[in-house]
Design goal:
By secondary structure, this protein is mainly α. The protein is 67% helix and 0% strand. The protein has one domain. The protein is globular and about 40 Å long.
Length: 165
Amino acid sequence: MSTVVRLTKLLSLAAFSFCLSTTSAFAAEASGHSHDHAGAPAKLSLDEGKKWASDEPLRKAMTNIRNALDESLQAIHEGKLSVTQYGALAKKVNGEVGYMVSNCKLEPNADAQLHLIIAEILEGVEAMEGKVKKLKRRDGAVKVIGALENYGTYFDDPSWKPIKH
């Protein structure tokens, strides 16, 4: 991988990390509750009862993450996915998150909701990489699948197919 590509990915992830650190504040402000629930974690919600709009880069990345997990699902369920395979799966998912963050252009309230889902995906990625000692790699995959279910629940993606598990 070239230095330029690595630097671009690093800068994208750094920008995402900054955005993620402000997600709770944005989500609270967007929901009009910033003064009442200081310190309360942001929660996923619909846009006045409707799913949030998505754009093509978001749909593409989420579909790619979904497909990667679906391809490994049987091995995950059977406990046959190796450490190396979990690492490769985590790398694939992380790459899609990087693409999503670099290319997705949602309105601010939808973006704040998306960041909650991305945070859940990244927690799953860390567990799949073996970086979370209290969770098994399998638990990380389950966390990513849960985030994908949340995506389907909260974002309008006409072509979305939930993972059957």
